[in-house]
Fold this protein.
Amino acid sequence: MQADSFRTDTVRAAAVQIAPDLSGRTGTIERVLNAIAEAADKGAGLVVFPETFVPYYPYFSFVLPPVMQGAPHLKLYEEAVTVPSPETAAVADAARRRNMVVVLGVNERDHGSLYNTQLVFDADGSLALKRRKITPTYHERMIWGQGDGSGLKVAETAVGRVGALACWEHYNPLARYALMAQHEEIHASHFPGSLVGPVFGEQIEVTMRHHALESGCFVVNATGWLTEEQIAEIHPDPKLQKGLRDGCMTCIVSPEGRHLVPPLTAGEGILVADLDMRLIAKRKRMMDSVGHYARPELLSLVLDAQAARPMHRIDGADEAADPAERIEAPKPAAKTEAAHV
């Protein structure tokens, strides 16, 4: 199907709200694989997981002072994933076997740094996109490094053109516009959940519905969840524990800004909804923010899409390139086998 053709098909999407395994990546990956199987059994062709779900979101950084974060930060280094790794290979294999597009948030370790990374696995198991959050928020800046413009791109997948942003990247209108200008059809997003309080969930809902309206695309958003036992494990002080509750808004929104199913704001569960792709043309007929409603001669976006690297050789050899980036390179022939991720 050509990118500019009118789509009339339907995509069944799933958004997952579950708790991680705070002991490490092995247990959380098992939960991811179980959720993929459950979503597939419900007929989903796309499933979205919460922000940095593997091994877990660094909730400790929100309630602990910096001087006390050393031990949990180092544990996060030990439990973070590399790309590729056995963990990403397991998810890729599940995507291939279930013929499903999987959007997974991970803590990615790249030598001495951690990143808030979004992975989009296509239905054949190949890694269609690996991107890093461009600016960690507030307490997160002590945990993660910054991503770059190379990840601000839309991936062609079995379910259509998928764009992805994490959490407060949605408050950067230019980051959102970069994906809108590439005509994303489904926007996969996620937030940590179980954070800040009820106001966070309210803000997420406004943000997701607005992006759906402004971009004329579907939004599939997943937030995480913590049990009371996990909250107590992260911090014993009841006053600080208040900052680790609520803030959940797992939802699936149409290009008209409407919830396709009631959002999930507490507890664990999987939302499933059918995305009628005809609604994209219906919305954009009225307002295409990067087409007939745009004024590029007045206002336009400049995106530096180069990967930021700490060293550039002038002898022609590019040893500074991240080996993980090579698995994202376009393939010369049609994909027939899963990529090694």
Notes: Residues 222 and 250 are 5 Å apart (CA to CA). The chain is about 25% helix and 20% strand. The first strand starts at residue 10 and ends at 17.
